[in-house]
Write a structure and sequence with these properties.
It is a single chain. This protein has 121 residues and is an all-beta fold. It contains no helices and 11 strands. Strands 2, 4, 5, 6, 9, 10 and 11 form a 7-stranded mixed sheet that branches. The model has no long low-confidence stretch (mean pLDDT 97).
Length: 121
């Protein structure tokens, strides 16, 4: 299984950040897998942003849920993150990753390489 993030590397404050994760080697609709977005700001730890399940159900971080949406395109085996009203503090490396059946956010088994997004003020 391979995951690849894509999207702009630079976004202006107040705009919407949109990132896509393209998955190969496995379907995002396969039962009981969850597809996640995580970020790591410079010098800080990992932060879970949210997930979309095999069923299409979505789960969001309470601290970010007012600004985020996660959707999917099953025909292209992709899922997308939208983060609205970005601020410089949203600058981070953004990752997509998979949770296999029976595991939680600590058990992600496949990760993308990550993409750096910088929010300019």
């Amino acid at each position: 299984v391979q995951l690849q993030e894509s999207g702009p590397g630079l976004v202006k404050s107040s705009q919407t950040l949109s990132l896509t994760c393209t998955v190969s080697g496995g379907s995002i609709t396969t039962n009981y897998y969850y597809w996640n977005w995580i970020r790591q700001p410079p010098g800080k730890g990992l932060e879970w942003i949210g997930a979309i399940a095999y069923s299409g159900s979505t789960y969001y971080s309470p601290t970010l849920k007012s600004r985020i949406s996660i959707s999917r395109d099953t025909s292209n085996n992709q899922f997308t993150l939208q983060l609205r009203s970005v601020i410089p503090e949203d600058t981070a490396v953004y990752y997509c990753a998979r949770i296999p059946p029976g595991y939680s956010t600590t058990g992600m088994d496949y990760w993308g390489k990550g993409t750096l997004v910088t929010v300019s003020s």
